[in-house]
Design a protein that fits this description.
Helix 4 packs across helix 6. The chain has 8 helices and 3 strands; from the N terminus they run H-H-E-E-E-H-H-H-H-H-H. The chain is mostly helical and about 240 residues long. The chain has a 3-stranded mixed beta sheet with strand order 1-3-2, with helices on one face. The relative contact order is 0.20. It is globular, with a radius of gyration of 17 Å. It has one domain.
Length: about 240
């Protein structure tokens, strides 16, 4: 089995045993028939103002995560609210990769969202980068608390690199779709998703899929406003290329 060594994974991941999964995925109900797909987040009025100071940016992020907690609580069984932890400015190390990052970033660290604030987010006149990063990180909360992340992490691939790569794209395209759902539930108006998907993670992710497919899934999640639109595990291979 090829080892699935990736950064930015959901919390509580563990290897599972089982049969190899076909394309589209079969025999993995945690992925294809997850209870999340029948649920719906609550619409939350989330009025955010970032400002260009450290204090205002910290407040923005804290309020954003609070809004996401409120929105997703009804959709996830036994939901555990997530807190934000702010790293010291001198601490550039990612807890998930061990990499040193010079700029701002957010990631899941244990059961919280950890954020390092640097001048790029603080001084930015718009909130595109910080909103996108935090909401994208939040998608890992969703996969972590619903069992999707754990099931993905333990998927068998029979030593096939191409199969593993497709499984990974299914996962990351689903997290893109959840970004769209989150944006819709928070009442954020997005008319053009291209700038959103161009916002880079702090690590280079080669499993995000083609630009056209990323746009397809994030727009699908946004239009529906429900995670049921985000079942990449039953989609054709062409939709997750």
């Amino acid at each position: 089995m090829i080892t699935r060594l990736l950064a930015g994974t959901a919390t509580g991941l563990a290897l599972l045993s089982g049969t190899a999964y076909a394309e589209p995925v079969k025999g993995a109900p945690e992925l294809t028939q997850n209870a999340l797909y029948k649920a719906k987040p609550s619409k939350v009025s989330c009025e955010l103002s970032k400002g260009t100071s450290k204090a205002s940016t910290r407040k923005y992020i804290t309020e954003l995560v609070g809004c996401l907690n409120s929105a997703w609580k009804p959709a996830i069984k036994d939901f555990e609210p997530v807190k934000v932890e702010f790293k010291e400015a001198s601490d550039k190390e990612s807890c998930s990769t061990g990499m040193e990052i010079s700029g701002s970033f957010s990631e899941i660290c244990a059961t919280s969202i950890q954020v390092r604030l640097a001048d790029d987010w603080i001084r930015a006149k718009n909130d595109l980068a910080v909103f996108t990063s935090v909401v994208r990180t939040w998608s890992g909360v969703v996969t972590g608390q619903t069992g999707i992340g754990k099931a993905w992490w333990g998927m068998q691939n029979d030593g096939s690199e191409s199969l593993m790569n497709e499984q990974n794209r299914r996962y990351y395209l689903q997290t893109d779709c959840f970004v769209g759902v989150s944006a819709k539930t928070l009442g954020r108006v997005v008319k053009d998703w291209k700038p959103v998907i161009k916002v880079q993670d702090f690590w280079k992710n080669r499993y995000q899929g083609k630009t056209a497919n990323r746009l397809y899934w994030i727009e699908k999640g946004y239009k529906a406003g429900k995670p049921g639109a985000c079942n990449t595990w039953t989609a054709s291979s062409s939709k997750v290329a």
